Amino acid sequence: MIKMLTSLTCAMLLTVGAANANTASDRLERIALPEGGVYPNGITHANDGTLYIGQITQGGVLRRSPDGEWSKLHEGAPDIFAGTSLRLDRERNVLWGASPDFLPAGKPRTPRIFALDANTGEVLQTTPLTVGFTNDIAVEPEGSILITESNGGRLLRLAPGGTEFETVLQDDRLTHESGIGAGGIARAENGTVAIGNFSSGQIYLYENSNLRQLDLPRPIENPDGMRFAPDGSLILLESAVQSGNGRVLRIADPVVAGQRKIEVIAEGLNSPVNLTVAGDGIAYVTESHIRHRMVDGLEDQSPGSFHIVIVPLN
Questions:
Q1: What is the pTM (predicted TM-score) of this model?
Q2: What CATH number should be reported for the domain holding residue 52?
C-alpha cells in the first residue's frame, strides 16, 4: 500500500480563498466508464467530441465516441501499463500518454512515455525514463511534448520518434520530500507553461526561461490536472488527498502580476486527477476514486463504479 505524505495545514483545507463553490458534486452530470474501466486518470478529446481515457492501475486506452459508444483504442501491454496523462496532438493525430507505476504491487516498473495513432491505436513509440517519474504532458505546436518529472522536479521535452529526453528545467521548488513534486502541466497559446507541485500545493509559471511562483491566497490541496481555457484562465483540479473535498478551480488572468483569486467552480469530487477542456466551455474531469488506496483507514471504501464528470465552466 502506498501512502502519500502531504504537508498542507488544516487552515488551508478549510479556506476557499476567493469564492464559494457554485456547483456541488451531486448536481453534476456524469459519464459511467464501461465494465472493466477503473481508476480513470488521463483524458483528452478530439475535435469531433471523441473522448480518450487512460487509467492509473492498468494499461489500455478507452475511447468514447460522440454518440456515446465505448471501445478500446489500445488493450494495454507490458510497456504500456498505465495512462496517468493523455494528450492529443490533433494536427498529427498522435495520442501521447504517460505510463508510470504509481501503485506498484511488486518491483516498480520503469516509467515511460508512449504515443499511439489516435484512429487505429497502433503504437508509434514507447520511450522509457530510466530515472524519475513521468507524470503529466503538454503538447507543443511543433509536435514535441513537455513532461513533468515528479521525483527530480524536472520539466522534460521529448520529440516525436525521440529516444532521449531533454531537460528543459530542473528546480528544487518542483520537488518534495514525499517524492511527488511536479505534477499537472498546461501550456498556453503564448507558450507560458503552468506547473503544479502536487505535495507543496504551489503553482508555478514558466515563461521566458524563468520559473516564478503564482501568488495565491492559499496553497492548493494537491493540485493535479490543469488546462488553459479558451478565455486564458487556468482551470485546475484540487485532488484533496487528505480532506477528500476534490474541487475544480479557476484562476483568471494567471499571467498578470500580483495575487490572483481562486474561484471554486465545483466541489465534492472524489480524487479528481485530470481534465480536458472543450471549445464550448465544458470540462471533462476524471474522478479517480483513488484516495482509498492512499489514506490509512479508507481501504474498505472501494468504489463500485467510475465516472467522468461533466463540469460547465461558464
A1: 0.92
A2: 2.120.10.30
Model pLDDT for residues 88-143, shown as the tens digit of each residue: 999 999 999 999 998 887 788 999 999 999 999 999 999 999 999 999 999 999 99
The 3-state secondary structure of 233-268 reads: CEEEEECCCCCCCEEEEEECCCCCCCCCCCEEEEEE
- H/E stretch holding 126 reads strand 123-128
| Element (DSSP H or E) covering residue 87 | strand 85-89
Full domain range(s) for residue 85:
10-312
Count of domains for the chain: 1
Q: Which three cell numbers stand for residue 57?
A: 492501475
Flag whether 249 is in a domain: yes
Q: Would you call 190 exposed, middle or buried from its count of C-beta atoms within 10 A (0-12, 13-18, 19+)?
A: exposed
1 in any annotated domain? no
CB 129 within 8 A of CB 120: no
SS3 state of residue 167: strand
Residue 243 lies in a domain: yes
